[in-house]
């Protein structure tokens, strides 16, 4: 249940088409009009993952702040980290509009943006101005017209190495034709070798080794998951992000919008992405960090991702429905859930429902 004020704000924003509303929310964050969230730090939520210290486990997922316009403002909303991008070497305009659709009854979104972004340089300049403050990850991708996609990822590592706290190699957007083919075993091996070599080279000169995560789709076969796990482990990848949007349209109420092409996110993605998360945790073992994303809408659903095997979680779509207070509500809610569970640390709850979620093939 959302409160009447939130309902009114949402009604106002929903008068606009989703992309205009998104632009307005970025403008509001830039202007400082959105109040910062006053959170009392809870040491039970603090964790070191992939060598980085996270104040709390909730992050803003990639795609909201594609051009690194508002990372600081997002962190002030209560997020423990935020991920800019996907950024590509050259600016590109993406697919024709309309290309974002709200499925209100389902609390879901379909998007086929196609990596619209201002390119590496624009995002780099903004991040450089932050001078390393804040837990900001950089999500990198390839231009649609690139004739060497792997080279685009390597360029991302080289360009952002001095300003990224971590990298995400996004090979799972359904909106760049052929991109998901990079998840196939041989292509993935080639990608990981090049990307991690570029990272190691940069680390040798800077003395700072930036972790690299791989973001995968939820629409994978068992063999596809086996292959990704094997390559992740053999290349000493720093972690996985599970998952991007889905091509599935199962169980939607809004049948009219369901026919739109693109990736589906929000509440209907929760089950599927959480099940894939658990099945990947089973495959990679306990040590590899995993960020769980897909349909997180509350402290309960965030904790469920952790119970299914996630170290950290991210969200995007449900903030469209719940508003900018959602991050703070979830972080405070997690502290209350830890009280209830009498848990000394959020880490203690990881994997406590791993078997349940791994068996649940949504
Ligand atoms: C409008 C929109 C744009 C997105 N753009 C990106 C992107 O550029 N790169 C990326 O890795 N994921 C992108 N995503 C996927 C999200 O990061 C996330 O993986 C997915 O939406 C599932 O989380 P959610 O259900 O909380 O939204 C986008 C999602 C939406 C809704």
From TrEMBL:
FMN binds at residues 62-66, 86, 139, 170, 215, 243, 266, 295, 316-317. Its EC number is 1.3.5.2. The active site is at 173 (nucleophile). Substrate binds at residues 66, 111-115, 170, 175, 244-245. Pfam families: DHO_dh. It catalyses: (S)-dihydroorotate + a quinone = orotate + a quinol. It is a peripheral membrane protein. Binds 1 FMN per subunit. It is an enzyme of class 1 (oxidoreductase). It is found in: Cell membrane; Membrane. Keywords: Cell membrane, Flavoprotein, FMN, Membrane, Oxidoreductase, Pyrimidine biosynthesis. Its main location: membrane. Residues 45-338 form the Dihydroorotate dehydrogenase catalytic domain. Pathway: Pyrimidine metabolism; UMP biosynthesis via de novo pathway; orotate from (S)-dihydroorotate (quinone route): step 1/1. It comes from the Bacteria. One of its GO terms (cellular component) is cytoplasm. Its cofactor is FMN. GO terms for biological process: 'de novo' pyrimidine nucleobase biosynthetic process; 'de novo' UMP biosynthetic process. PROSITE patterns: DHODEHASE_1 (PS00911), DHODEHASE_2 (PS00912). CDD domains: DHOD_2_like (cd04738). GO terms for molecular function: dihydroorotate dehydrogenase (quinone) activity. Belongs to the dihydroorotate dehydrogenase family. Type 2 subfamily. Monomer. Catalyzes the conversion of dihydroorotate to orotate with quinone as electron acceptor. NCBIfam families: PRK05286.1-2, PRK05286.2-5, pyrD_sub2. This is Dihydroorotate dehydrogenase (quinone). The lineage of its organism: Bacteria, Pseudomonadati, Pseudomonadota, Alphaproteobacteria, Hyphomicrobiales.
């Amino acid at each position: 249940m959302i409160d009447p004020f939130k309902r009114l704000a949402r009604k106002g924003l929903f008068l606009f088409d989703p992309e205009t509303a998104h632009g307005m929310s970025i403008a509001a964050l830039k202007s400082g009009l959105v109040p910062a969230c006053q959170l009392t730090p809870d040491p039970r939520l603090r964790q070191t993952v992939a060598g980085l210290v996270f104040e709390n486990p909730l992050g803003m997922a990639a795609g909201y702040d594609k051009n690194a316009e508002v990372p600081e403002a997002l962190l002030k909303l209560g997020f423990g980290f935020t991920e800019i991008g996907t950024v590509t070497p050259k600016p590109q305009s993406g697919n024709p509009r309309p290309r974002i659709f709200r499925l209100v009854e389902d609390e879901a979104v379909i998007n086929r943006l196609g990596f619209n972004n201002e390119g590496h340089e624009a995002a780099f300049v903004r991040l450089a101005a932050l001078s390393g403050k804040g837990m900001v990850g950089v999500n990198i991708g390839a231009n649609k017209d690139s004739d060497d996609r792997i080279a685009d990822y390597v360029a991302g590592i080289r360009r952002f190495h001095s300003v990224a706290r971590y990298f995400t190699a996004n090979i799972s957007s359904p909106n760049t034709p052929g991109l998901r083919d990079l998840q196939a075993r041989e292509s993935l091996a080639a990608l990981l070798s090049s990307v991690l070599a570029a990272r190691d080279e940069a680390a040798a000169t800077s003395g700072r080794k930036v972790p690299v995560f791989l973001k995968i789709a939820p629409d994978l076969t068992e063999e596809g998951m086996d292959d990704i796990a094997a390559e992740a482990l053999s290349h000493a990848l720093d972690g996985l992000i599970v998952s991007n949007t889905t091509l599935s349209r199962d169980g939607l109420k809004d049948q009219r919008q369901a026919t739109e092409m693109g990736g589906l996110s929000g509440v209907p993605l929760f089950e599927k992405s959480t099940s894939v998360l658990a099945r990947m945790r089973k495959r990679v073992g306990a040590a590899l960090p995993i960020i769980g994303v897909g349909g997180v809408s509350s402290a309960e659903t965030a904790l469920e991702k952790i119970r299914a095997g996630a170290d950290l979680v991210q969200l995007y779509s449900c903030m469209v429905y719940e508003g900018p207070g959602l991050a703070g509500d979830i972080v405070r809610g997690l502290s209350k859930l830890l009280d209830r569970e009498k848990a000394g640390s959020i880490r203690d709850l990881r994997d406590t429902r791993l078997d349940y979620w791994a068996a649940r093939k949504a």
